[in-house]
Amino acid sequence: MQDHDDFGFIPSKIMNVIDTKCQERDAGGKPGSTFPRPALAAPDAGAAGMKPAVKNRPQSVLFACTRNTVRSPMAEALGRHFFGKEIYFASAGVKRGQSDGFTIAAMEEIGIDLTKHRPHTFEDLEDACFDVIVTLSPEAHHKALEFTRTLATEVVYWPTLDPTAIEGSRERILDAYRGVRDGLLERIERLLAYKPMGNL
Protein backbone atom coordinates (compact mmCIF):
# COMPACT_ATOMS: atom_id res chain seq x y z
CA MET A 1 0.00 0.00 0.00
CA GLN A 2 1.33 3.44 -0.96
CA ASP A 3 1.75 6.17 1.62
CA HIS A 4 -0.77 9.01 1.60
CA ASP A 5 -0.57 12.49 3.06
CA ASP A 6 -3.18 14.06 5.37
CA PHE A 7 -5.72 14.35 2.57
CA GLY A 8 -5.27 10.96 0.96
CA PHE A 9 -2.89 11.95 -1.82
CA ILE A 10 -0.25 9.56 -3.06
CA PRO A 11 2.83 11.83 -3.00
CA SER A 12 4.43 10.20 -6.03
CA LYS A 13 1.38 10.71 -8.23
CA ILE A 14 1.58 13.74 -10.50
CA MET A 15 -1.47 15.88 -9.95
CA ASN A 16 -1.59 17.97 -13.09
CA VAL A 17 -2.45 15.28 -15.63
CA ILE A 18 -4.47 16.94 -18.34
CA ASP A 19 -6.68 14.95 -20.70
CA THR A 20 -6.30 16.56 -24.13
CA LYS A 21 -9.87 15.57 -24.95
CA CYS A 22 -11.27 17.64 -22.11
CA GLN A 23 -13.48 20.55 -22.95
CA GLU A 24 -11.86 23.91 -22.33
CA ARG A 25 -13.48 26.59 -20.27
CA ASP A 26 -14.32 30.25 -20.61
CA ALA A 27 -13.01 33.08 -18.50
CA GLY A 28 -16.02 32.96 -16.23
CA GLY A 29 -15.30 29.41 -15.16
CA LYS A 30 -18.20 27.92 -17.13
CA PRO A 31 -17.59 24.75 -19.12
CA GLY A 32 -18.24 24.29 -22.77
CA SER A 33 -16.44 27.14 -24.57
CA THR A 34 -13.03 27.60 -26.15
CA PHE A 35 -11.10 29.44 -23.47
CA PRO A 36 -8.07 27.46 -22.18
CA ARG A 37 -7.66 26.25 -18.62
CA PRO A 38 -6.43 29.04 -16.33
CA ALA A 39 -2.64 29.13 -16.26
CA LEU A 40 -0.87 29.17 -12.93
CA ALA A 41 0.02 32.70 -12.00
CA ALA A 42 3.71 33.45 -11.73
CA PRO A 43 4.73 33.97 -8.09
CA ASP A 44 5.37 37.55 -7.06
CA ALA A 45 8.65 37.62 -5.19
CA GLY A 46 7.68 40.93 -3.61
CA ALA A 47 4.36 39.80 -2.20
CA ALA A 48 4.67 39.39 1.53
CA GLY A 49 3.79 35.94 2.73
CA MET A 50 3.25 34.47 -0.74
CA LYS A 51 5.08 31.23 -1.42
CA PRO A 52 6.11 30.11 -4.92
CA ALA A 53 3.60 28.13 -6.95
CA VAL A 54 3.66 24.43 -6.21
CA LYS A 55 4.88 22.37 -9.17
CA ASN A 56 2.23 19.67 -8.91
CA ARG A 57 -0.68 21.82 -7.79
CA PRO A 58 -3.89 20.69 -9.52
CA GLN A 59 -5.30 23.03 -12.15
CA SER A 60 -8.90 21.86 -11.79
CA VAL A 61 -10.73 20.64 -8.67
CA LEU A 62 -14.24 19.25 -8.22
CA PHE A 63 -15.74 19.16 -4.74
CA ALA A 64 -18.53 16.64 -4.21
CA CYS A 65 -21.00 15.93 -1.41
CA THR A 66 -24.40 14.30 -1.16
CA ARG A 67 -26.81 17.05 -2.29
CA ASN A 68 -24.56 19.95 -3.38
CA THR A 69 -26.24 22.28 -0.90
CA VAL A 70 -23.76 22.78 1.95
CA ARG A 71 -20.28 21.25 1.95
CA SER A 72 -19.33 21.13 -1.71
CA PRO A 73 -20.70 24.58 -2.68
CA MET A 74 -18.91 26.04 0.35
CA ALA A 75 -15.65 24.44 -0.79
CA GLU A 76 -16.13 25.53 -4.40
CA ALA A 77 -16.87 29.11 -3.36
CA LEU A 78 -13.86 29.26 -1.03
CA GLY A 79 -11.61 27.91 -3.77
CA ARG A 80 -12.91 30.37 -6.35
CA HIS A 81 -12.68 33.29 -3.92
CA PHE A 82 -9.05 32.76 -2.93
CA PHE A 83 -7.54 30.77 -5.81
CA GLY A 84 -9.92 31.26 -8.74
CA LYS A 85 -7.45 33.15 -10.91
CA GLU A 86 -5.11 30.17 -10.93
CA ILE A 87 -7.31 27.09 -10.60
CA TYR A 88 -10.70 26.01 -11.94
CA PHE A 89 -13.20 24.90 -9.26
CA ALA A 90 -16.61 23.24 -9.50
CA SER A 91 -18.96 21.25 -7.26
CA ALA A 92 -21.60 18.56 -7.60
CA GLY A 93 -23.81 16.26 -5.55
CA VAL A 94 -24.93 12.68 -5.80
CA LYS A 95 -28.49 14.03 -5.62
CA ARG A 96 -29.89 17.50 -6.28
CA GLY A 97 -30.90 19.20 -3.04
CA GLN A 98 -32.48 22.55 -2.19
CA SER A 99 -30.61 25.77 -1.44
CA ASP A 100 -29.67 26.03 2.24
CA GLY A 101 -30.15 29.32 4.08
CA PHE A 102 -27.56 28.54 6.76
CA THR A 103 -24.95 27.89 4.07
CA ILE A 104 -25.71 31.27 2.51
CA ALA A 105 -25.54 32.99 5.93
CA ALA A 106 -22.24 31.37 6.95
CA MET A 107 -20.57 32.32 3.67
CA GLU A 108 -22.02 35.83 3.73
CA GLU A 109 -20.21 36.40 7.02
CA ILE A 110 -16.88 36.20 5.17
CA GLY A 111 -18.01 38.20 2.16
CA ILE A 112 -18.91 35.36 -0.22
CA ASP A 113 -22.31 35.41 -1.94
CA LEU A 114 -23.88 31.99 -2.50
CA THR A 115 -27.41 33.19 -3.22
CA LYS A 116 -27.05 32.34 -6.93
CA HIS A 117 -25.85 28.77 -6.36
CA ARG A 118 -28.20 26.14 -7.75
CA PRO A 119 -27.56 22.56 -6.59
CA HIS A 120 -26.71 20.08 -9.34
CA THR A 121 -25.44 16.53 -9.76
CA PHE A 122 -22.50 14.74 -11.36
CA GLU A 123 -24.72 14.11 -14.39
CA ASP A 124 -25.21 17.87 -14.82
CA LEU A 125 -21.47 18.48 -15.29
CA GLU A 126 -20.66 19.50 -18.86
CA ASP A 127 -16.95 18.77 -18.38
CA ALA A 128 -15.88 15.58 -16.63
CA CYS A 129 -12.15 16.32 -16.72
CA PHE A 130 -10.69 17.29 -13.34
CA ASP A 131 -7.21 16.78 -11.95
CA VAL A 132 -8.67 16.12 -8.49
CA ILE A 133 -12.09 15.25 -7.11
CA VAL A 134 -12.39 15.93 -3.39
CA THR A 135 -15.30 14.03 -1.83
CA LEU A 136 -16.88 15.23 1.39
CA SER A 137 -19.34 12.42 2.14
CA PRO A 138 -19.25 8.61 1.80
CA GLU A 139 -21.99 8.69 -0.85
CA ALA A 140 -20.06 11.22 -2.91
CA HIS A 141 -16.87 9.21 -2.59
CA HIS A 142 -18.48 6.07 -3.99
CA LYS A 143 -20.03 8.10 -6.81
CA ALA A 144 -16.70 9.77 -7.66
CA LEU A 145 -14.89 6.43 -7.86
CA GLU A 146 -17.53 5.20 -10.30
CA PHE A 147 -17.46 8.50 -12.21
CA THR A 148 -13.68 8.35 -12.73
CA ARG A 149 -13.24 4.69 -13.71
CA THR A 150 -11.88 5.67 -17.14
CA LEU A 151 -10.38 9.05 -16.23
CA ALA A 152 -6.89 10.10 -15.11
CA THR A 153 -8.30 11.78 -12.02
CA GLU A 154 -7.20 11.62 -8.39
CA VAL A 155 -10.08 11.03 -5.95
CA VAL A 156 -9.50 11.94 -2.31
CA TYR A 157 -11.85 11.76 0.66
CA TRP A 158 -12.15 14.47 3.30
CA PRO A 159 -14.64 13.23 5.93
CA THR A 160 -16.70 16.34 6.69
CA LEU A 161 -19.54 16.83 9.17
CA ASP A 162 -22.98 17.36 7.67
CA PRO A 163 -24.17 20.40 9.67
CA THR A 164 -27.78 19.86 8.62
CA ALA A 165 -27.88 17.09 11.23
CA ILE A 166 -27.27 19.58 14.08
CA GLU A 167 -30.29 20.56 16.15
CA GLY A 168 -30.87 23.38 18.60
CA SER A 169 -30.92 27.16 18.44
CA ARG A 170 -30.21 29.11 15.29
CA GLU A 171 -26.84 30.18 16.67
CA ARG A 172 -25.86 26.61 17.55
CA ILE A 173 -26.72 25.41 14.06
CA LEU A 174 -24.93 28.35 12.45
CA ASP A 175 -21.84 27.60 14.54
CA ALA A 176 -21.78 24.10 13.02
CA TYR A 177 -21.88 25.60 9.53
CA ARG A 178 -19.07 28.00 10.44
CA GLY A 179 -17.01 25.08 11.67
CA VAL A 180 -17.47 23.26 8.35
CA ARG A 181 -16.63 26.44 6.43
CA ASP A 182 -13.45 27.13 8.38
CA GLY A 183 -12.34 23.50 8.29
CA LEU A 184 -12.76 23.37 4.53
CA LEU A 185 -10.76 26.55 4.03
CA GLU A 186 -7.91 25.17 6.12
CA ARG A 187 -7.83 21.97 4.09
CA ILE A 188 -8.00 23.84 0.79
CA GLU A 189 -5.07 26.02 1.83
CA ARG A 190 -3.05 22.94 2.72
CA LEU A 191 -4.07 21.14 -0.46
CA LEU A 192 -2.82 24.04 -2.55
CA ALA A 193 0.30 24.39 -0.41
CA TYR A 194 0.15 28.04 0.47
CA LYS A 195 -2.04 30.48 2.37
CA PRO A 196 -4.06 32.76 0.09
CA MET A 197 -3.65 36.52 0.20
CA GLY A 198 -6.54 37.73 2.31
CA ASN A 199 -7.84 37.37 5.80
CA LEU A 200 -10.79 35.59 7.36
Explain what this protein looks like in three dimensions.
The protein is α/β, with parallel strands linked by helices. It has a domain at 60-191: Rossmann fold, CATH 3.40.50. It has four helices and six strands, in the order βββαβαβαβα.
Dominant shape = globular
The fourth-level CATH homologous superfamily of the domain at 60-191 is: Response regulator
Strand content: 5-15%
CATH class of the domain at 60-191: Alpha Beta
> pLDDT below 50 for ≥5 consecutive residues: which ranges?
1-54, 194-200
Given the helix and strand composition, which structural class is it?
Answer: alpha/beta
Q: What is the overall number of helices?
A: 4
CATH arch. level architecture of the domain at 60-191: 3-Layer(aba) Sandwich
Mean pLDDT: 78
Rg, please? 16 Å
List the secondary-structure elements in sequence, H or E. EEEHEHEHEH
- How many angstroms separate the termini? 38 Å
- Count every beta strand, where a strand is a DSSP E run of 2 or more residues: 6
Query: In which range does the helix fraction lie?
Result: 25-40%
CATH topology of the domain at 60-191: Rossmann fold
Strand order of the largest sheet: 4-3-5-6
Write the layout of secondary structure elements.
Layout: E1 24-25, E2 31-33, E3 60-65, H1 71-83, E4 88-93, H2 101-108, E5 132-135, H3 138-147, E6 154-157, H4 170-191
Parallel strand pairs: 3-4, 3-5, 5-6
Antiparallel strand pairs: 1-2
